[in-house]
Design goal:
Blueprint: H1 9-14, H2 62-84, H3 93-124, E1 125-126, E2 130-131
Length: 137
């Protein structure tokens, strides 16, 4: 493989790699456990030196991304449940689906929190270009 090979966007996002070089890992711990170290990130990418926190409080915006991901997952769960089992108040399947989707969202939340940080940073940093705007130094 040549060094000019551009890594795929989707696989780099799912592997939670740096948006600038798509090689360095964005999180200090590759796994979500222990939960108290879930969002620990190095200051800069170990491979290219890209700053991960572009400004103070940068990641407050990830709440909106996480909310959108949660809603999308919830809609997907409801659609799959509706197609496979059907939804009806008569047999309480609506409540079963609601319970199932709440359990899945609860279990997936640590991963969704990490993914929202990755997606949010990918919105502001281009591959091979660094930060889109000039920040104060």
């Amino acid at each position: 493989m040549s060094s000019s090979h551009k890594p795929a966007l989707l696989s780099s996002i799912l592997k939670m790699q740096c948006p600038n070089c798509r090689k360095g890992h964005m999180f200090s711990n590759k796994h979500i456990l222990p939960l108290n170290k879930l969002l620990d990130m190095p200051e800069k990418c170990p491979h290219c030196g890209q700053k991960f926190e572009l400004e103070v409080g940068f990641y407050y915006g990830t709440g909106y991304v996480s909310y959108a991901l949660s809603i999308a997952l919830m809609v997907a769960i409801w659609l799959v449940y509706w197609v496979v089992f059907g939804l009806s108040y008569a047999d309480n399947s609506v409540f079963y689906c609601l319970g199932l989707s709440m359990i899945i969202l609860f279990v997936m939340q640590p991963w969704l929190m990490r993914l929202s940080r990755v997606l949010y940073l990918y919105m502001f940093v281009r591959y091979g270009k660094g930060v889109r705007w000039k920040t104060e130094q």
